[in-house]
Design a protein that fits this description.
The chain is about 80% helix and about 0% strand. By secondary structure, it is mainly alpha-helical. It has a domain of about 80 residues. Helix 1 crosses helix 3, helix 6 packs across helix 8 and helix 7 packs across helix 8. The protein is elongated.
C-alpha cells in the first residue's frame, strides 16, 4: 500500500461511510451490527493490494457491505439452527419412528458430525458451506479467502473422506 493510501481511504470513509450505513439499514432493517459492517467494509478495502486502482471505489464499498451483511445473516442463521443440536434432531425426527429407529438415526448424525470434526478446519467449512448452506464455490472462496479451485478441491477431499468413513462403517457393520 502506498503512503497516500491512508489519505485515500480516509477521504473515502468521510465521503461514503454514512451512506453505506444507511444502505445497510435500509436493506436489512433488523441488522444490529451496521457500524461493524461499515468498518469491516473499509478494512477490506484497506487490505486490497492497490485500492487507488479500483475504478469505482463507491460501488466496491457498497458491494462489499452487501456481501458482508449477507455473510453475517447466513452465519447467524447457521448458528441459531445448530445452537441446540438435540433440538434439531427432535425437529427432524419422525414421530412415528420406533425408539430403536430414532436412536439409530441419532447415532448416524453423531457419526457424521464426528467425521466432519476429523477434517481440517478450512476443508470442513468449505464442505458445510457447499453441501449444507448451498453456497457456490465462488461464494465459498470469497468467504474463506481461498481460490475457487481450492474450494472445489476442499469439498472434493471432504466428500472423499466422508465417503471412505461411510464405506468403512458399512464394512464394519457387515462383519
Amino acid at each position: 500500500m502506498s503512503k497516500d493510501s491512508p489519505g485515500f481511504l480516509h477521504k473515502l470513509f468521510l465521503q461514503h461511510a454514512h451512506e453505506i450505513g444507511a444502505f445497510v439499514r435500509g436493506r436489512w432493517p433488523r441488522e444490529p451490527d451496521v457500524t461493524d459492517i461499515v468498518q469491516e467494509t473499509f478494512l477490506r478495502l484497506s487490505q486490497y493490494p492497490s485500492p487507488q486502482s479500483i475504478q469505482n471505489p463507491r460501488a466496491f464499498l457498497f458491494q462489499t457491505a452487501a456481501n458482508l451483511t449477507v455473510d453475517r445473516h447466513r452465519r447467524r442463521e447457521t448458528r441459531e439452527r445448530f445452537a441446540a443440536p438435540n433440538a434439531e434432531i427432535e425437529q427432524v425426527a419422525d414421530r412415528d419412528l420406533s425408539p430403536e429407529h430414532y436412536w439409530q438415526a441419532h447415532q448416524q448424525l453423531e457419526k457424521f458430525s464426528a467425521w466432519l470434526d476429523e477434517l481440517p478446519e478450512l476443508r470442513r467449512h468449505a464442505f458445510v458451506l457447499y453441501r449444507i448452506e448451498g453456497c457456490s464455490h465462488a461464494e465459498i472462496a470469497a468467504r474463506l479467502g481461498i481460490s475457487t479451485r481450492c474450494s472445489e478441491r476442499y469439498v472434493m477431499l471432504a466428500m472423499q473422506h466422508i465417503s471412505a468413513r461411510l464405506s468403512a462403517d458399512q464394512d464394519q457393520d457387515l462383519r
